[in-house]
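Dissemination and training. As part of the outreach component of the grant, students in the summer workshop were shown how a complex can be specified as a set of sequence lines and then modelled as a single object. The example used during the hands-on session is reproduced here so that future cohorts can follow it. Participants entered these lines:
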Amino acid sequence: MTSAYPFVSLDEIDWHRKDERIESTHEMRSGRQYRYRWGEKERINFRASEVSSADACQINSWWSAGTALVLQHQTRFETTSGYLVNKTQPFDGFIESDSRYFRGKIELESF
Amino acid sequence: MYSVSSAYLVEAAKTNAAWKRRFLIGTSDYSAWVKKWPNIKREWNDIKPGTVTINLVNGDQAFNFFIQDPTKLRSDCSIQLGFDYTPSSSEYLTLFSGKVDATRYSNGDCSITLVDKFKQLADRTVGDNTSPVFYTSSSFLVHDLAWYLVTSHGGYSAVRSTSNPDIDWTSFNSWSSVFSADNTRLKAQFKGKKITEMLKRISELTQSAIWIENNRIKFFRFGIADMPATGLDDDTIADVSLTFDDRRIINRALVSANYDVTSKLFPITVANVSTSSINSYSVRESQTAYEDIWHVDSVSAINLAQRLVLSYAEPQGSLQVESSLAGIVATIGDTVTFDDGFLGLQSSYRMMSEDIDMDIGKKTFTIDETQILASFRLDFSTLDGTDVLA
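and obtained this result:
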């Protein structure tokens, strides 16, 4: 995950990707249907654990500032541009046994 | 009809047209920040500032520049609908242009209200009660008076060519030829009313349409029906409602003229009557007499009286038609053919208002016959009955 900042590595689990089409349909009296596709948006959710405090702090600051981000998945060759749309701060939990690492959830929605 | 290329027309008619929407502040494209696209409404004689509100996300503080530099509120903004034909070729129709009227920041969002060119004319007044501005030294052709209001008093461009950025010169030129031919003349005294109110008076006194299209003020008096540009049928109508309004009937129109600013009386009042309508619907009178703008003589006044009776002596249907964006290019003043088997209507109508829902891509027209039959309604009641041919 990058913006203008150094690469942040996330050890993700529970990867979910949801593509949503933004469209409207209008049915005429003859049955003819007009279907207008205005765009698509992509939403990616995943949990991450054992995130260093520096990385957690960096991601939380991106969330606070509404920074535009690019998510690059190293093995799936996927790239998504978007914003963090978490309702609350993405990384706000400690790993119970070791307080040096954080855990949290990334919710990224495309532009 | 909005001016677009044939490629645009072909694309717009498709059931899966690849519409794109754009919101520009200056030349910067902020479309990606739009949460909800607005409804854009306009009517043929609604001469007041038109506004639209567009809701945007501001999580990245993209619109905080208005707070830091309020002069940015004067930026020219536009809302457009069109197509990207290829990565390097596109065509967009500007549906609304204006400046920022207000910005509101709430819950990380920003909503921007835009206002159109009538705003400047609603912000300015002409004369006052102590020092009225008189246009009584001679008799002014209708279009000359409107021109002075919009340019000399309203501050808009007085360039008499198609390069005028504020007035649609082509429509103004056609509009002026109507009054030159009819020799319809007005006088006026302005005591501090807004320019938009004065234009509304002129619209009423001449049955003219005055509205904003492509960021220019258009003037039009509907005459003989032109060739229908758009056809509405079951393939293009999602829903329709029809209203026959008995209250709109006028069969005895009285128009006063030659107002005397000293005695405050109108020495002339002319009347036009439709006997067949009175026989059918009883007397429905209308009186037109304004002390700020008035017809100079009976010839000018009778022009309006006749037009009112011709337009409103019979109850005319008004239709609200919901459609897709296939008919997007049809706009106010256009003649459309309407074919409805259920209601048993198959006729030509004039488009009097439009409401474009840019969020879902729907257009609602109001079409009626009041401004289309006036020029060629044939009443043969004097021959063999009370029937009216239309």
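The interface with chain A takes residues 15-19, 21, 32, 59-61, 108, 233-239, 323-326, 359-362 of chain B (CB under 8 Å). Students were then asked to discuss how this feature might be tested experimentally.
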